Structures are given as C-alpha cells and as structure tokens.
Task: structure prediction
Amino acid sequence: MGEKELAKYPDNVDLHLIMGGLYLNLRNYKQAIDEYEKVVGLDQKNLVAYLYLAIVYTAENKLVLAEDNFKKMLEIDPENVTGMYYYAKLLADMRKYSEAEKMYQKVIALRPYFEVAVFDLAALYEKQGKTNEAIAFYRGYYEKNHTRLNVRIKIAELLIKEKKYEEALAEYQSLLNFDPNNREARLRLGILYYDMRRYKSAVVEFSTILKNNSADDRVRYLLASSYEEDGNKTLALEEYKKISTQSELYATAQIHSAMLLSNEGKTREAIRLIREALKINNRHVPSYLYLSSLYEKVKDNVAAENVLREGIALYPDNIDLRYALGVICEKMSRFDESIKEMETILRLDPDHAEALNFIGYSYADRGINLEEAEKMISKALQLKPDNGYIIDSLGWVHFKQSKLESALTHLKRALELLPDDYNVIEHLGDVYVKLGKLQEAQKMYERASKLVPENDLLKKKLFDLKKEIR
Result:
C-alpha cells in the first residue's frame, strides 16, 4: 500500500517518513536509510529525517555518520532537546565523555525536569569513576528541583557505593521526613540498616511498610530475616509463617523456619515442615538439599539419600543434588556409587573442582589410582588455587606416593588456610611420623584430638606414638 502510494506521490515527504518508520521497525536499516535520505533530498531542513538517520546509523554502529546527522539537525535547530539528548548518548557511546557531559548539561538547562537526562549524566560521571561529581551534580540538581525525590534515592545509592553509610542513612531519613509514605526510600533504608547489622532499626522500617501493605511478602521476608539475625527466633518464626504459599519466597522462608527449629533441637519438627513445603512446591532444589541434611543430622542416611533421589528424578542434571548424593553414598560406605555420581557431575561440568577433588582424595585415601588422583586434584587446584581442602588432598596424595617433602609443603599451606580442620592436622602428623619427626607429630595429633576428642583412631595414633617416643 505504501509503495503504491509513493509511486503516485514520489515527492510526498510524509509518506517517505512513514515508510522509513516501517522499515526501521522491521530492522531493515538499508531501506530505512534510503527513505530518510529521500526526505532530506526533498526537504533539507527536515529535523525528523536527520534524527532518524542518526538513530539508524547508530543501530548499524556507523557512529561517525550518526554524529554527522545529529550535527546537521542541531545546525538547523540548536535547541532541539530530543536531538541533543540522543546526540549526548551517542557521544557517550563514542567515549567522547567531555563533549557528552556538556551536551547533557545543555539538555538539562533547557528541560530541567527531563529526569532521564539527569540520570544519564550522573551515570556518565559514575562510568568515569567520578562518583563524587555524580553526587555533587545530584545535590545541585535537587537544590533547584525539590520535588524530584527520586534524585535523593540516587544520591543515597551513590553514597552506599562509596561506603558512606551514615550519610546515606541521613539522605533516606531526610527524604522520609519530607515524604513519610515513600515506600521505595523506606525499603532501601530498611535494607541498609540490615546490611549494617542494625537489625532493630531495620525491623522498624519493614514493620512500617507492612502497616500499609500487609500482603507484601518480600518485605515480610526481610522483617523475618531481621528478627532472625537479631536473635529473636520466636518473632522470626511468626513472620516466616505469614508468607503466602503462593509467594516465590515461601520455600526459602520454610527453610529458614526449619533452621531455627533444628537449632533449638526440634529437628523432627523441621523435617515435617520441609516435607509439607515440598508438597506445596516440589520444584525447589534447596528444599531437597536442606531436608537431606536434616535427615543426616538425625542419623537417617537412607532417608537423606531418598530425598536426594526424589530431587534428582525431577532434575537429573542438577549438580548440587548429585554431589550431595555422592557424599551420602560415601558416608554409607558405597564407594563405587559415590564415584559414579562424581563422574556424572564431571560429564555435566568437566571443570567441577569439588567433584575432581572428591574422586582424587577418595582414590588417595584408599591408596589406589594414585597417578590419576594426582592429575585430578592438580586440575582442581588450578581451578581453585586457594582452596585449603584441595591443597590438603594434594598433600595427602603426595604422602601416599612417598613424596614426603612435597606433602609437607602442601599440608602446611592447607593448615594456614584451615587451622581448625582436624583432618589436615592429622595428615600433617602422619607426614611428620614418616619423616621421623615424632615430637612434631605428637603436637599435631594432640591438637587434632582436642578438636575431635571422641575419635578413636586419633587416640590410638597418639597412644602408639607416645609409646614409641618413650
């Protein structure tokens, strides 16, 4: 229809603009440019054509051509705010930051309430690392435009970024004195209090919001979390219970409630709670993982395994579920099954450091496949070079290979990272025994025994060593 009309009226500027717009929406940039160029040929002062030519060239990443068209547009109308705004954005994209800043400033001078330009200019300051300039700019803008309360929120955000938390608090509080019903400011203030561990103050802000909207589950969750962190378990449980079963936060809230119950010795009640939650939402992976850990806590590894298999039936490629299942199988002395789970993980993610380490350590601990174990642990360590558990594993495989000096070096490093891990300490003691440094070995075994006084193997090692030293 449009092309037929153009054939009849080839000099109709409006038709060319309409066709240009259609081509632009279809992302047929070549045809769009052709239409807008025809407009310019017919009307050399057509601002719309220059603007859209610049926009199309920007979309094609032909930034110099886009800039040429903005310049032509602004030569015709030097105070065209729309053209100036998009030109400022282009200059920023071209990293001509100084020119972009000046152009944004002109836009804001002509149109003080053009908040998008205000936020863009502040973002440009931030992009250049000029956070203080951005704050000063916002403050100056607000002084002239006291009704623009969103600017105060932006100032507070930047102050938080600069870790000027008290100033940010003052900014939110000042805004709320002016507008007590500003939900966004009050929510951000509550979150800031929470992050600063000022939980009682966070409770006040979140409770105030809920007075106006008791169905806000996100704020309810934050209120419950504040009570939990402040040690008020009873009120935390009450608030978690109020979160709707339809809320996306419901399952997570039930996990927190279960944690509180389990920590009070009510693990069976916690298990029932998560079981009920899974009836409502059986697609929540963390619920399977946490429920499994609760069964482990009550020494029911069979139930722990079954829960994980329930989750895996729904999510067969979920690495967290499979890793937890592998660990459970190992605890139940089903070595081959535990290795099989870890191998499945490595098929899904060949760079899964924990699975590599698990297999490598398991081999080393049994004194089998030591060369393969060393390769797997070394790869894991490349992926996570500061992981104390992986460093311990490498030390342990070297111990099994009788590379005692290397084992000693790695285990000392592991101990620096994990000073309270009895396994690392015990491993170091074993190396000292092999090196004939019995006094050092005794110190390590005694240190480990203090951490796990009921460990019979450690008791025997220490007893035998003391006999040998005598």
The first helix runs from residue 2 to 8. The mean pLDDT is 95. DSSP finds 28 helices and no strands in the chain.
